[in-house]
Amino acid sequence: MAETIDLEELQSELLSEIAAAKDLGALEQVRVSALGKSGRVSAVMKRLGSLPAEERKTFGAAVNAVKTRVSEALDSHKTILESAALEARLASEQADITLPVRPGPVSEGRIHPVSHVMDELAEIFADMGFAIAEGPDIESDDYNFTKLNIPQEHPARQEHDTFYFHPDSNGERLVLRTHTSPVQIRTMLSQKPPIRIIAPGRVYRCDSDQTHTPMFHQIEALVIDESTHMGHLKWVLEEMCKAFFEVDEVKMRLRASHFPFTEPSAEIDIGAEAIGKPGQWLEIGGCGMVHPNVLVNCGLDPQRYQGFAFGMGIDRMAMLKYGIPDLRAFFSADLRWLRHYGFSMLDVPTLAGGLSS
Ligand code: 2U9
Question: How many CB atoms lie within 10 A of CB 60?
Fold first, then answer.
């Protein structure tokens, strides 16, 4: 039977072509030339019609057997080539994670001192049980001023050099927040005491000279509970300063002052020994007990709850700790400055591992 010999030859030719295919592309070519529409097996199939009926059945079965055998060989060779391709890829793409970091974004990029100091302070306050609260930079006049006991026409509104937006159709004026205090207002309106939060972020004042930039950074803290007092306030401030300046002792004095949102109020000074300048005092921020009007404005009963708040400039804290002389350089995007004063991305501040090392 000439056809049977043809088929055996065809099968063995195709099987050796399959075995010789070196990659998946070559194998696909073999598949198309064997089993494709105009492939060699299909061509043999087409001859079926011209055979006498009695031969058609046996020949048809024999062609199908070749087709099945060739398909199986294609499948098994495909599996072998695929796993070889995967092995090759794994070998070529493997990374030696013990190698030092190559020069590039991770080793050359720098964390801005403001971001680094924010991370340091977040670490210090997290250790004392404070949560981080955030709010929008664009605030309502009500949250930025009125609820903080700064009514219309209060002189503090002028002192804050506010950036105002145009009034809307109801006459309401939005502002760029002049302090992060509206974050504490939002927290008191949405959470029940006890409250222990810090609110770090950008603030804006229409003021620009050697020591003021129109945008700067603040961190404020708020604690509200039933028996919170100024002793707690002073302890938290002292612990914060010792951890932040990485010293065992810090001299601190609270100097009487006035803010509309606290009563009593004080300015916070620390002994400049903390930054290696003995004999001087440094002002680092303001603080006080939250004014009863502010508590009432946020739906809290001042007979039951009281608390303290304080605020500091983050940029100033960074300048003091890291001896950075010029505030305006903070926002000038000068790469040489950033290379000098910035921090490595891999130096994440932790209390256990050191904040600034
Ligand atoms: C609420 C109630 C009270 C936050 C406070 C200060 C005093 C303060 C300045 C220090 C340096 C801002 O960056 S700075 O110029 N801040 O003197 N901040 S008490 O008091 C609050 C805040 C929110 C609800």
Answer: 13
Is the pLDDT higher at 347 or at 26? Answer: 26
Q: Which atom of ligand 1 is nearest to the CA of 188?
A: 24
Give alpha helix (H) positions in the chain.
2-20, 24-35, 40-46, 53-93, 105-108, 113-127, 141-144, 155-159, 181-190, 230-245, 292-297, 314-322, 335-341
Question: What pLDDT does 168 receive?
Answer: 87
- Does an H or E element contain 265, and which? strand 262-271
Q: Of the residues 261, 270, 298, 317, which should be mutated to test ligand 1's pocket, given the most ligand atoms within 8 Å of the CB? A: 261
227 Cα–ligand 1 center, Å:
21
pTM: 0.72
Give pLDDT tens digits for 121-170.
999 999 999 999 999 999 999 999 999 999 888 877 776 689 999 998 88
Phi, psi of 131, deg, nearest 5: -95, 160
Determine the residue of 237, 312, 315, 316 to mutate for testing ligand 1's pocket, defined as the one with the most ligand atoms within 8 A of the Cβ atom.
Answer: 312
